[in-house]
Amino acid sequence: MKLNDFRTFFNKELENIYPKKEIDTFFFRIIEAKMKLDTTAVFTKGDTKITDKKLAELTIITERLKTEEPLQYILGNTEFYGYNFEVNPNVLIPRPETEELITWIKTSYLENTNVKILDIGTGSGCIPITIKKEIPSANVFALDISKKAIETAKKNAENNNVDVTFLLHDILSEKKLESTFDIIVSNPPYVRNLEKKEIKNNVLNNEPHLALFVADNNPLIFYKRIADVAKYALNANGILFFEINQYLGKETKEMLISKGYKNVILKQDLFGNDRMIKANL
Ligand SMILES: C[S@@+](CC[C@H](N)C(=O)[O-])C[C@H]1O[C@@H](n2cnc3c(N)ncnc32)[C@H](O)[C@@H]1O
């Protein structure tokens, strides 16, 4: 089969499930990953012959996409801040809004060398690994309650050639952190069950619920706990950064102020949604 013919087949199989633009994005990513042909080549080399072995592989990917499995899990990796991260169903797929959080940290971190940073709820390790890449002098730590997430994050640190210390730790437990930090950052679980109807099937049925959901009656559970932990674990002039639920910006800000935090700044993402907060003691 030729590349053009496979594209026709691919479009037809997926047209009732995804918008055309998303199907095109999938196609370009798959052909790049599996046939090493870039987007231009998809248009200029449409008569490239696909071997039977490759075709079998591409057909399996098409079938998996039909079940709404995220392409990042199918291919086993994704790009975040220009770096490559292995992903699997034990870790959340890093999101573009988290890239904006990293940029905010980069532009406001303390200019001392060896700034010590902790990421709480690290998942794939996208936050600490990217920070270490972007601020090489930083001393970076990360924790997660999930052993499998920590294993994936460690692999990602190795693949990206950075040194990050990973800890298995339940941030909601009473166990105290043993170090103090100049920056504490977290993108914790924040989706309320009542928001489940807004969540697409590919997320709901595939990404780890441990990474996503909190109870409707206590949606800020992680933020409150981390704000308490940061009180003893932040160094003088230290900064706390959160990615937040876009519907709970005001509540998160008020909670931080009520716990004695100052300079609480709520920031919007590229789409104008309340998405990040920073504060200090
Ligand atoms: C929203 S995900 C964020 C993952 C990653 N930091 C990112 O931005 O893509 C939240 C993470 O918190 C972790 N988590 C959930 N409960 C936790 C707990 N009690 N203590 C520590 N980490 C927890 C989950 O395993 C998950 O990896």
Automatic annotation (TrEMBL):
| Reaction equations catalysed | L-glutaminyl-[peptide chain release factor] + S-adenosyl-L-methionine = N(5)-methyl-L-glutaminyl-[peptide chain release factor] + S-adenosyl-L-homocysteine + H(+)
GO BP term (any one): methylation
Family in the record = Belongs to the protein N5-glutamine methyltransferase family. PrmC subfamily.
Binding-site residues, S-adenosyl-L-methionine: 121-125, 144, 187
Q: Which organism is it from?
A: Tenacibaculum jejuense
In terms of superkingdom, the source organism counts as: Bacteria
Protein's gene: prmC
- Cite the binding residues for substrate: 187-190
UniProt protein name: Release factor glutamine methyltransferase
EC top class, as a word: transferase
Q: Which InterPro entries match?
A: DNA_methylase_N6_adenine_CS, HemK-like, N5-glutamine_MTase, PrmC_N, RF_methyltr_PrmC, SAM-dependent_MTases_sf, Small_mtfrase_dom
- Methyltransferase small domain location is 111-203
Q: Which residues form the Release factor glutamine methyltransferase N-terminal domain?
A: 31-76
Q: What is its EC number?
A: 2.1.1.297
